[in-house]
Write a structure and sequence with these properties.
Blueprint: E1 11-16, E2 20-25, E3 29-35, E4 38-41, E5 47-50, H1 51-60, E6 65-68, E7 71-72, E8 75-76, H2 79-94, E9 103-108, H3 114-126, E10 132-136, H4 137-144, E11 155-160, E12 165-171, E13 174-181, H5 185-200, H6 206-216, H7 253-273, H8 277-286, E14 288-291, H9 300-308, E15 312-314, H10 321-330
Parallel strand pairs: 1-9, 9-10, 11-14, 14-15
Antiparallel strand pairs: 1-2, 2-3, 4-5, 4-6, 7-8, 11-12, 12-13
């Protein structure tokens, strides 16, 4: 899998997420950070716009335009749209038409099916890349979050994206066990849609639900069902007074978010309970390292710490951990073991 690099061939890293795509060019850093969206004219012959432009069309609701999410749940869901989007972003990243196909490093959730793995590989290949190297996402996240390669006690890396949560036990430059939970920010948006409908009988779109989550979403001070929510940040807001937001009772948002998070909390609890005894003891002391866009949700860190009974810390730049970790590996592909779970920078 990991052949020596040819000097005239560019090497790039791609993190094609459900919400956004990052591309890093070796020696140039992260050069693309765009929403993973493609806008088509209704008859879907030719893409009209990608990334930020496509998001603007989605928000404006342009007539005759359909906006497609090529990745859902962290996996390629619309192959043709994924290829078109990658081709566009690769041109953007390299600033020109590609003469030589760049080698590419990407990551994928641990434990996905071979079909999903082939879809990610195939989309990159069809978009014009050369050799495709794949590592498991938790390794990239841990390296990007700056967890030391020689740290000898296990910590749990939890990256909560829009469509998937990647979980891995990281220790001494290696992911010893990893999995994914089919949960992300999209599920919280859906929980808000359901919660507002149930409590107020009001129908809001998922885009509107996400806007509410981003602007007034908080678990800060949420004391659980029946507890006092008086400290919750959201009680200070009246959504009707915020431009573009529907008039909803935002004091219910913390409880709605907590309900939406239940499947994630249950899965994490199960994973922790089923770790080997020694690892579990270490993780209980070292705690969880949180990353991914969802980790920016106000109050999530302390909410998870309370629910799981262990320390939780959020990475410094949580939305960039994955691509920054891929960038680290890009500099030294030879330090990566086959299988994409270990990275050991040579001494010196
Ligand atoms: N400040 C914030 N508060 C709460 N949620 C946020 C915030 N900023 C972004 N998000 C959410 O984070 C998610 C995007 O995270 P991220 O960019 O890590 O996803 P992704 O890598 O594209 O997706 P995935 O890894 O699941 O395929 C979205 O659901 C978005 O609504
Ligand atoms: Mg991600």
């Amino acid at each position: 899998m990991l052949l020596p690099r040819l000097p005239w061939v560019e090497t790039i890293a791609v993190d094609m997420g459900t919400w956004q795509t990052h591309i890093c060019v070796r020696g140039h850093g992260v050069v693309v950070r765009e929403p993973s969206l493609v806008a088509y004219a209704a008859e879907r012959r030719r893409p009209l716009a990608f990334g930020t432009e496509a998001r603007k069309m989605l928000q404006r609701g342009v007539e005759g335009v359909t906006v497609v999410q090529p990745v859902r749940g962290g996996m390629v869901a619309d192959f043709d749209a994924a290829v078109a989007m990658l081709r566009h972003f690769l041109h953007q990243a390299t600033g020109r038409r590609l003469i030589f196909s760049p080698d590419v490093l990407t990551c994928i959730s641990a434990g996905v099916t071979s079909v999903q793995r082939r879809a990610a590989h195939g989309a990159l290949h069809s978009a014009g890349t050369g050799r495709v190297n794949i590592v498991e996402t938790p390794l990239a996240v841990a390296l990007g979050a700056g967890v030391g390669l020689n740290v000898s006690r296990a910590c749990l890396v939890v990256d909560i994206g829009a469509g998937v949560t990647d979980v891995g036990v990281f220790c001494e430059g290696m992911v010893t066990s990893a999995t994914f939970i089919p949960f992300g920010g999209d599920n919280l948006d859906e929980a808000i849609v359901r919660g507002v409908k149930r409590r107020q009988g009001q129908t809001i779109s998922r885009t509107m639900a996400e806007t509410l989550k981003l602007q007034v979403g908080s678990l800060n001070g949420y004391a659980g069902r029946g507890g006092s929510a008086s400290a919750a940040k959201t009680t200070n807001h009246n959504s009707a007074m915020m431009p573009g937001l529907p008039e909803v009772d935002v004091s219910a948002i913390p409880e709605i978010l907590a309900e939406g998070l239940t499947p994630l909390v249950d899965e994490l609890r199960w994973i922790l309970e089923n770790l080997p005894r020694q690892q579990r003891a270490e993780v209980e002391e070292e705690g969880i390292l949180l990353s991914g866009g969802c980790s920016l949700l106000d109050g999530l860190e302390s909410y998870l710490a309370r629910q799981l009974g262990l320390p939780v810390t959020t990475a410094t730049d949580p939305m960039s951990c994955t691509i920054l970790g891929l960038e680290t590996i890009l500099e030294d592909l030879s330090a990566l073991s086959l299988g994409g779970r270990r990275f050991q920078r040579p001494a010196g």
